[in-house]
Amino acid sequence: MSAERKPWVTSADLNQAYDFIESHPDITSIDLILFDINGKERGKRIPVSSLPKVYESGVCMPASVFALDIKGETIEETGLGFDQGDSDRICRIVPGSLQPIPWKPGVAQAVLTMCNRQQSDGFFADPRLVLTKQLQDLQQQGFNPCVAVEYEFYLQDLHPDEQGNPQPPIMPLSQTRMAQTQVYSLDELDEFKSFIDEVIEVCQQQGIPASNISAEYAPGQFEVNLKHSSDVVAACDQSMLMKRVIRAIAKKHGFCANFMAKPYSEYSGNGCHIHVSLLDNDGNNIFSDQPEVFQHAIAGILKYMSETMAILAPNANSYRRFQPNMFVSMQPNWGWDNRTVALRVPSDTEENRRVEHRVAGADCNPYLVVGVILASILEGVQQQLQAPQAIDGNGFELPLDNPFPLSWPQALEQFDASKVLERHLSANFCRVYHANKYSEQLAFATNITPLEYEWYQ
Predict the structure, then answer these.
(1) CB-based contact 21:27 (threshold 8 Å)
(2) Three-class SS state of 258
(3) Are residues 182 and 53 in the same domain?
(4) Closest CA to 378 of 148, 123, 150, 133
(5) Do the domain assignments include residue 130?
(6) How many CA atoms lie within 13 A of 225 on its CB side?
(7) Which of 64, 96, 121 lies at the terminal end of a domain, its last residue?
(8) Residues 393-409 as b or e (16 or more Cβ within 10 Å = b)
(9) What is the mean pLDDT of the chain?
(10) CA separation (Å) from 112 to 29, 142, 203, 331?
């Protein structure tokens, strides 16, 4: 090991770098990607000749990358900016994440994760570390999570309508603008076959296990599913990279891919559905073999759902998605094969029993969403919480006896007061996250909308 080599580096890592360069003579540069608190891509582009050095010594990025708000501005109240001299931390390449980018000739990509000052552990504000900590806590109890991530998104025209608003795309074959909701429509899949096929092909090329794409509940809305994985952090890496693929391929085909929680007021919003189960150390499904653990897990998720709302619904637009009869529950409840509740237990074989968490929007950070779900499960098991009765029938028709915080300020207030999240995610992370989103919320609240001028002047 050279004097500069970091403790995480192995000979296999360096061999991977040299082998990649040798086997990809067309690659001239590498995009190094770090996902911030909002799930936005940050990073650097390096010449391919620097790849072995980055594997060996890491690459510097400022800690303040996790103080950036949705607009990319540093929120000084996080304490990660000038208070620390806007200092750097070392970032390392996540093993196995180095892949060519099919839509960028000559460019490859790799995912980064940030280290603390001692370079002995992850940086507390890195969402990947937040998730890793929850995994470790569960694994210490003999529980090994298995997850799958599903995203809904809209394809939209690159050009707005006459009022300047986003609009559904023109279908490639019929050359007519989409205007109807045709859930599970095969005709719509035929219209967008070339786009869908290329998304699946590019995902396969990058090792992203996208299983299928289906037409959803509004014009131009689709859902894409990732296969279940017991490598939970990698599954979240892949879900973020899949968004990158969808956006790029959509643009290539003349569309815009929109992952906003609520792009249209009249149509259903975009969700991020998380499927989760627990396996024992032999790979057996604990939710099937130990029904009491299954019940404790559901109870824990439900009990802390309101406290986690600021992560499940992280932006101002997120809360527009919570409306009656719009395929998202407005209060914590669960049911068997029921899409009108917050937690759905899909109909499947006993050995594949799992919980589908349906509350988060597609604008969420999946590392943090999965992290708070796992933390809630652990709380439920440790406290031996009992799940309420399953909802049978239309959950949307139930009275709102225990609604979520359905506004951004309320959600942030409950997040800030949560001792459970502070204990699991760390007080420092909760402080940074709250400061970041609270600053955004204040800035959003001071903006005067055109509708206010129309109604009140």
Answers:
(1) yes
(2) strand
(3) no
(4) 133
(5) no
(6) 12
(7) 121
(8) eebbeeeeeeebbbebe
(9) 93
(10) 15, 29, 19, 36
The reply to whether 406 and 434 lie within a common domain is: yes
Q: Which of 225, 420, 386 is nearest to 305 (CA)?
A: 420
Average pLDDT over residues 370-394: 97
> Residue 241 contacts by C-beta under 8 Å, 6 or more apart in sequence?
109, 111, 206, 208
CA distance 399 to 165: 34
Three-state DSSP class for 356?
Answer: strand
Residue 386 pLDDT > 70: yes
Model confidence at 3, in pLDDT bands (50, 70, 90)? very low
Tell me, letter by letter, the H, E, C secondary structure of 364-388. Answer: CCHHHHHHHHHHHHHHHHHCCCCCC
pTM: 0.95
Domain shared by 273 and 176, yes or no: yes
How high is the pLDDT of residue 184? 55
Number of compact structural domains in the chain: 2
Distance of CA 377 to the CA centre of its chain: 18
User: Quick check: 223 pLDDT over 70?
Assistant: yes
Looking at the structure, tell me whether residues 394 and 346 fall in a common domain.
yes
Residue 385 has pLDDT above 50, yes or no: yes
- What's residue 2's pLDDT? 44
Closest CA to 420 of 373, 455, 360, 355: 373
Torsional sign, CA 245, 248, 251, 252: negative
Residue 3 lies in a domain: no
Task: Examine the pLDDT at 185 and tell me if it is beyond 70.
Answer: no
What does the pLDDT read at residue 1?
37
- Return the number of other C-beta atoms located less than 10 Å from residue 205's C-beta: 13
Mean pLDDT over 78-97 rounds to 93
Domain membership of residue 363 (yes or no) is: yes
Q: How far apart are CA 17 and CA 456, in angstroms?
A: 62
181 shares its domain with 323: yes
- Residue 278 burial class via C-beta count within 10 angstroms: exposed 0-12, middle 13-18, buried 19 and up: buried
Does the structure show a pLDDT above 90 at 21? yes
Return the SS3 of 381: helix
Q: Kindly report, residue by residue over 264-321, the tens digit of the pLDDT.
A: 999 999 999 999 999 999 999 999 999 999 999 999 999 999 999 999 999 999 999 9
Torsions phi, psi of 199, nearest 5?
Answer: -60, -50
Task: Give the closest residue to 39 by CA, choosing from 59, 61, 68.
Answer: 68
Q: Answer whether residue 114 is part of any domain.
A: yes
C-alpha atoms less than 13 angstroms from C-alpha of 167 in its C-beta half-sphere: 14
Structural domain range at position 30: 11-121
Judge whether 224 and 151 are in contact, CB under 8 Å. yes
Do residue 330 and residue 186 come from a single domain? Answer: yes
8 A C-beta contact, residue 38 and residue 69? yes
> Under 8 Å CB-to-CB from 313, ≥6 apart: which residues?
261, 319, 321, 322, 359, 360, 361, 364, 408, 411
